[in-house]
Amino acid sequence: MRRAHLAARVKVMRQALSRQGSREQGFSLIELLAAIAIASVILAAVGALVRNVALNFDRGTRAVSDGERLILAIERLAADFGSARFVMTPGGGSPVAAFIGEAARVIFVGPGGVSSNQKGEEVVGLTVEQEDDVARLVRRSAAWLGPRTRLEDIPLGDPVILLEGKLLISFDFGRVNDGGALAFSDGWKGAPVLPRVVRLGLRDRATGADVIAATDFVIRADTSGGCGQQNPVGCVSGPAAPKAGQ
Counting runs of H as helices and runs of E as strands, what totals does the chain give? Predict the structure, then answer.
């Protein structure tokens, strides 16, 4: 009798342990499923965060790249215009300064040298080229063949894109008027002197707003190399304007 009672208690204990083990196994499975669900949410959130960070980083990198490119273009233009040569070439009736300035094109004589493929003086051409709604400011150059050569007759090569984007790019040319102030025009050709200042305008094509404030590049050359010996009185350039209609 006692043995039967003991066997019954053992059976009850085994059933209790079996039910407890089932509950523990059930809880472990639920916890595993919950952990998987939480991990999925975390992974999705991390993925979205990484995507946003990568997108913002890419935008920031492009902005920095565009800014650096603009700075390099400004430096290149400042060096070119600042070292422009005062050279006289054949004109219609009398010699004129070797400088052609239009709203979308500038051609002049530069020094060549270290930053150029030309060993001697060179002809520098800056042209605004349009393709659909994208504008490019392209620099080209060629060897300067001497004062008897017309700028228009020199083929330019070695294109380098200085600026590119959905921009409105234009040039204006400033002279010092009789009152000592700068007066600007959108053309300079056939004049006996160089402009004092070349102004670069950059505007957003869509809004018309200035991308940067108008940038002025000073042309430092006033006279040709032998001007002082040949004509001391009329040597230095005054406030002469380009020829009318050019």
Answer: 2, 12
Please tell me the distance from the alpha carbon of residue 193 to that of residue 71, in angstroms, as a whole number: 29
pTM of this structure: 0.67
Query: What does each of the 246 residues of the chain score in pLDDT, given as a tens digit?
Result: 555 554 555 555 555 555 555 444 445 666 666 667 666 766 766 666 556 555 554 454 455 477 788 889 999 999 999 999 999 888 767 888 999 999 999 999 999 764 545 567 999 999 999 999 999 999 999 999 888 888 888 999 999 999 999 999 999 999 998 888 999 999 999 999 999 999 999 999 999 999 888 899 999 886 655 554 444 444 444 444 444 334
190 Cβ neighbours under 8 A, 6+ residues apart: 91, 92, 96, 242, 243, 246
CA atoms of 123 and 26, how far apart (whole Å): 86
Tokens representing residue 162 in the block = 């200085």
Long-range contacts formed by 156-164: CB under 8 A, 24+ apart: 156/107, 156/123, 156/125, 158/117, 161/136, 161/137, 162/72, 162/73, 162/76, 162/77, 162/126, 162/137, 162/138, 163/69, 163/70, 163/73, 163/135, 163/136, 163/137, 163/202, 164/134, 164/135, 164/136, 164/137
Alpha helices in the chain (DSSP H): 2-82, 227-230
106: its two tokens: 């500038």
Count of CB atoms situated within 10 Å of the CB of 205: 14
Domain ranges in the chain?
1-75, 83-230
